[in-house]
Amino acid sequence: MNRAASTFLCAVLIASGCRPPPPDPYEGLPPVENLEQDPAKIPRQPEKPPESVCLSQILVSWKGAEGAYRRIKLDRNGARLRAERLLVLARARGTDFGELARRFSDDAETSVKDGDLGVVSRGQLHPAIERAGFSMETGQVAGPIETPRGFHIIMRTEPTEFQAAEILVTYTGARKYKPKTPRDREQATQLAEQLLGRIRAGEDFFELARKYSDMHNSDKGGIYRIFRKGTKHPKFEEIVTGLAVGQVSDVIETSTGFHIVKRLPVRRIELRKIQIDYVAGDLLAFEPGKRTRKEAQRLAYDIYRRITEEGADFASMATLYSEGNGSGKGGDIGFVGRGELAWPVEKLVFALEPGQVSEVIESGTAFLIFKRIH
After folding, report:
1. Which of 196, 256, 285, 341 has its CA 20 to 30 A from that of 279?
2. Distance (Å, rounded) from C-alpha 260 to C-alpha 204?
C-alpha cells in the first residue's frame, strides 16, 4: 500500500471511530524465546570504583523525547518494551553488542561507531547513565535506563583510549633525541635509576619530567594527549596497557635512551573560560587602541571580583568580555584532557571542583579565568 492510500485509510478509520493499531515495539527485532542469557553480562559492583570507564550504548527513543527524529513512532511505553527486548538480546550468549547498536540504536552519532561513547569520566553523562556505567565490570550490560532522550542500554567495554606520561633520559650518541645536558650512557643509566627511586619515594612525576626529561613534551610534565589504541608505537602501547592506572614502570632501555612511563586515568573536564588579551608594550605602536597589560590585568580582576563576590553569571561575563575561543558560547570551550593546555593552566584547572571558579592566571599575552562545568 502506498503512502497516500495508507493516509486515506487512517483518516477513514479515525472518522469511523476506529484508530489504527499502535506501532509494533518489536518490529525488526530477532526473537528471544530460545536465547540463553550470559551470567557474565549481568552487572556486578566492581571491587575498586573506576576513575573512568569505556561505554557503548543503544538508544531507544520515543515520539516527543528530547532530540527524537521525526521518523520515531513509538510512544514512551512502546519504547520501554522495545528497550527491554534489546536488553535480553544484548545479554544473550554470543551477541555482538556493536551489531545491535548499528542496527537498532536511535542515536545516529554513536550507532555508526557500534554505539561507542568512548572513555568517559564522572560528570560527563546523564547521572542515571553514570551510576549504571560506573557500577559494573567490563563486558556487563545494564538497562533500560531512562533519560529525557529515551531508554538506554549500556555496555562497559574494554578501553579504547589511553593516557600516559613519560620521562626520557637520553645520552650523546643515542638515536633521535639529544640530552639537555651532555652525558654518556652510563651517566644516563644512573640518572634514570635515581629518578625512578625518587618517584617511588613520593616525589612528583610531572615535576621531575619537567626538570629532567629529554622528551619534547617535558614542558607539560611528560604528559601525552589522550590517544586511541593503534596510534602510538606498538612497544609504547604495550608498556602502557601493561600498567595499572597510576602505576609507574621500571626503567626501560631502547635505542633512544632510558624511559620511565606512568599510566594515567583518561580524564576530561568541561570548562568555561574568560580570556582578556593585551598587547605587549613594544608592540603597542603597531596596534593602537589595544589594551596594555596593566589594563587587561585590572579588567580581569574586576570580572573575577564581580563573579566571586557579587554573584555575576560566569557565562554572561564571558559573552560580554571574553576574546578567546568559546566567547560566543558563554565561554564554553568543551571537554579538555590533560596534556592539552599550558602546564600552569593545566595544574590550575584540573584541581577545580565542579562549579568552582579559578583564580586569575596569566598565560602568554592574556589573563584567564576558568570555571569547571558540572
Report:
1. 341
2. 13
